[in-house]
């Protein structure tokens, strides 16, 4: 937040300043043509009924950086095919607010059904249902049924291609994401840069194909493809009370929640789970494909009350062997698919994985804090133990958040 904005907050002038300087026009949307013709990037738009876009054959992303708001009022946008844009592909090319807390872009209360998002298949563009990229925004109460996102290169997400300074809450979708060549795919976000919060959200029946990138940089995750940041900006990506189910099929860096946590990145995950089958040639983890380290610059991950209960498989049998005999360059593990070398900071508290469902005995996420010589690691449990409520009660899981019932894996309330 800049100094002027801080002064306005402190003196109580913010509300009057916003109402006068940033007063926006309001525009009703009743047809798909209205949606396609959004022209005031500062305007406040709202749906007055459900709209069917089946007859709109060349829907292009709303161009430029949108800094207004779109409220669906619980109505549905259906049968929409979004074609590639110049600076990003989605309902909007880009969305950019003035401040995440006080002046965010707000996209909320919308249902989507039968949506196809066609990312650029030649040059590549950041792609997601809502926007190719988003900064300083709030995405809330979005429900999506039958979404297909495709393209090559760049970042592809079910909701956003690239995100920073953003809260994504109460977003639920089932999606298929096909991406080829060397980049990132996530069920919700392709590339989470920094200060991103995913809250009370889910991706079900996910299918991600991320191919032809064995020698390049690529990652695929149930919620996020990759988290990136810098040594100067240490604002974390947070995942809380969220989950993913389905399957991730990638050449490398496949994870049930996150494909790759890049060095410098900070990630906090709590009260979340994955039931995502992971099939990669190297670096596969039930929760995180890889938490990287480069030139002694480590990634930093904290996991609290998190679990995985799906198979981690692949076509290279060396990867299935426990260290120290396993092949470090193609590790496949119950939680974190890191190579044996390197020591990313992955601190796990009260977390578990199903060793029978994953087919793995080793989590790959053991971390020792040298300041107190205390070790942290998700615990391997049999399926019967993972479906016993006392396993999680003994680890102090909060029953106001979790439904813990014998005979079933924990689910979020």
Secondary-structure map with pairings?
Blueprint: H1 3-11, H2 14-21, E1 26-29, H3 32-36, E2 44-47, E3 51-52, E4 62-66, E5 69-71, E6 76-82, E7 92-96, E8 105-118, E9 131-152, E10 155-157, E11 160-180, E12 184-186, E13 189-192, E14 196-199, E15 202-211, E16 219-221, E17 224-227, E18 237-240, E19 243-255, E20 258-261, E21 266-285, E22 288-291, E23 293-294, E24 297-298, E25 300-308, E26 312-313, E27 332-333, E28 345-349, E29 352-354, H4 355-358, E30 367-369, E31 374-376, E32 379-381, H5 383-386, H6 389-393, E33 402-403, E34 411-412
Parallel strand pairs: 1-2, 2-5, 3-6, 4-7, 5-8, 6-8, 7-9, 8-9, 9-11, 10-12, 11-13, 11-14, 11-15, 12-16, 13-17, 14-18, 15-19, 16-19, 17-20, 18-21, 19-21, 20-22, 21-25, 21-26, 21-27, 25-28, 25-29, 29-32
Antiparallel strand pairs: 23-24, 30-31, 33-34
Give a structural overview.
- By secondary structure, the chain is mainly beta.
- It has one domain (3-412): Pectate Lyase C-like, CATH 2.160.20.
- 8% of the residues lie in helices and 49% in strands.
- It is built from 6 helices and 34 strands.
- It has helices spanning 3-11, 14-21, 32-36, 355-358, 383-386, 389-393; strands at 26-29, 44-47, 51-52, 62-66, 69-71, 76-82, 92-96, 105-118, 131-152, 155-157, 160-180, 184-186, 189-192, 196-199, 202-211, 219-221, 224-227, 237-240, 243-255, 258-261, 266-285, 288-291, 293-294, 297-298, 300-308, 312-313, 332-333, 345-349, 352-354, 367-369, 374-376, 379-381, 402-403, 411-412.
- The strands form 4 sheets. It has a 6-stranded parallel barrel with strand order 11-14-18-21-19-15.
- A hairpin with a 7-residue loop joins strand 33 and strand 34 (411-412).
- The protein is globular and about 60 Å long.
- The two termini are 35 Å apart.
- The model is unreliable at 1-22 and 320-328 (pLDDT under 50).
């Amino acid at each position: 937040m800049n100094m002027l904005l801080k002064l306005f907050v402190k003196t109580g002038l913010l509300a009057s300043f916003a109402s006068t300087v940033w007063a926006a026009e309001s525009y009703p949307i009743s047809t798909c043509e209205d949606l396609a013709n959004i022209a005031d990037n500062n305007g406040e738009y709202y749906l007055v009924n459900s709209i069917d876009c089946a007859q709109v054959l060349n829907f292009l992303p709303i161009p430029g950086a949108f800094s207004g708001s779109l409220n669906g009022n619980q109505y549905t946008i259906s049968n929409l095919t979004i074609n590639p844009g110049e600076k990003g592909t989605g309902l909007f090319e880009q969305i950019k607010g003035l401040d995440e807390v006080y002046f965010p872009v707000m996209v909320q209360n919308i249902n989507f059904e039968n949506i196809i998002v066609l990312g650029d298949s030649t040059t590549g563009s950041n792609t997601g249902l809502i926007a190719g990229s988003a900064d300083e925004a709030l995405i809330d109460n979005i429900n999506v049924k039958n979404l297909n996102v495709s393209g090559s290169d760049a970042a592809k997400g079910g909701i956003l291609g690239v995100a920073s300074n953003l809260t994504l809450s109460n977003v639920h979708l089932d999606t298929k994401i096909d991406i080829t060549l060397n980049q990132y795919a996530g069920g919700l976000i392709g590339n989470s840069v920094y200060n991103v919060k995913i809250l009370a959200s889910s991706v079900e029946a996910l299918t991600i194909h991320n191919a032809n990138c064995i020698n390049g940089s690529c990652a695929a995750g149930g919620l996020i493809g990759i988290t990136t940041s810098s040594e100067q900006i240490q604002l974390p990506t947070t995942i809380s009370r969220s989950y993913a189910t389905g399957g991730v099929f990638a050449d490398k860096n496949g994870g049930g929640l996150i494909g790759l946590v890049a060095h410098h990145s900070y990630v906090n995950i709590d009260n979340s789970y994955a039931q995502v089958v992971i099939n990669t040639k190297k670096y596969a983890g039930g929760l995180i494909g890889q938490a990287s380290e480069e030139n002694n610059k480590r990634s930093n991950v904290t996991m609290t009350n998190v679990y995985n209960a799906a198979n981690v498989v692949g076509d290279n049998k060396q990867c299935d062997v426990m260290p120290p005999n396993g092949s470090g360059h193609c590790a496949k593990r119950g939680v974190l698919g890191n190579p044996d070398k390197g020591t990313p900071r992955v601190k796990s508290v009260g977390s578990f994985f199903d060793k029978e469902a994953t087919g793995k005995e080793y989590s790959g996420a053991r971390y020792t804090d040298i300041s107190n010589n205390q070790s942290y690691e998700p615990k391997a449990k049999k399926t019967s133990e993972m479906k016993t409520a006392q396993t999680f009660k003994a680890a102090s899981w909060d029953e106001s958040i979790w439904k813990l019932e014998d005979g079933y894996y924990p689910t979020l309330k």
